[in-house]
Amino acid sequence: MKLHLYIARRFLTAFLTMLVVLGIIFVLLDMVESMRRFDAAAVGFGNILGLTLLNAPVWIYRILPLIVILSTLWMFLSLARSSEMVVTRAAGRSALQTLISPALTVFIFGMIAVAVGNPIAAATSKKHARVASQLKGTGGSVLSISPEGVWLRQGNEDGQTVIHATRSDLEGTHLSGVTFFSFAPDGLPTLRIEAGKAKLEPGQWSLTDAKVWDLENADNPELEAQAYGDYAITSNLTQDQIRDSFGKPSSISIWDLPGFIRQLEAAGFSSRAHRVWFQMELATPLFLVAMVLIGAGFTMRHTRFGRTGIMVLFALMMGFGAYFIRNFAQILGENGQIPVLLAAWVPPIAAIMMPMGILLHLEDG
Q1: 138-144 — which CB contacts under 8 Å span 24+ positions?
Q2: Which of 19, 238, 240, 294 has the greatest number of CB atoms lying within 10 Å of its CB?
């Protein structure tokens, strides 16, 4: 038990050290990128620093697999150089028994990272995008999903228009049960339109079975309301703007994802990308365990055998390969080429099996 606690403490020390070092490096790189994207003289160093700190949790959360594999390499190489691995084996502990404590430690940390780190990264990601839009002078998201349906926003110098629909197609360009609310630049309502259907065309919304209330000039808007079989409203929205407004699944907390997925499906949108991301986040602890096993599979050997640099290189290549396959499976899952559960859970399980095979071969021949 004491040996397990000792190895777990050594791994945790290496992990936290690597987390701080890589975190500082990536924060500095992101600060340079923010200064390149924004005019630092006009925006101010304080805003640049604030943006960088808002993006720091996202960067750290993304590079957790890299931190884990580097920490594993560092720990086992240091144990090998000090001959502690030789002493451990002489005490009757096999390599697989030695791996129990670091694997269990990183699994627990992975669960904490998903439960706590994911919501923090999602919240700061949203805040970063909002502040970046303000500094660039661009508008925020034009689309929002709620239990009541789909909400869209469009506007120009003549005023703003808020659009509500009960259902939509996958692209957000064909709406059903639509209501348009137009507002003047001073915020006063000017027009209300209800329609059975609305279709986004270049430069306009084409409405079917529309009823129009003039809220600005009519003395009695209900009595003077007019019905139209076909009606058109000018619009500066595009299909790309609507699609981009969904945002990334990573900007939504894992605790809110199931509800958001249900709202997407109820509104008529595809939730496949969000379902894939949700399952991948649940599988993150297993993937971090795989990084520990990959790092240990090439470094749990005495340094007198030589070729340590080559072994470290092989470990990093296998780790990056597993990461690439995981991302490739995510793309296939989002495109519907493979099932969601297969895309999320098979890569980490396969990444665990590969180093386990190497360890069993080295230990038992």
Answers
A1: 141/245, 141/247, 142/237, 142/241, 142/242, 142/245, 143/172, 143/242, 143/245, 143/246
A2: 294
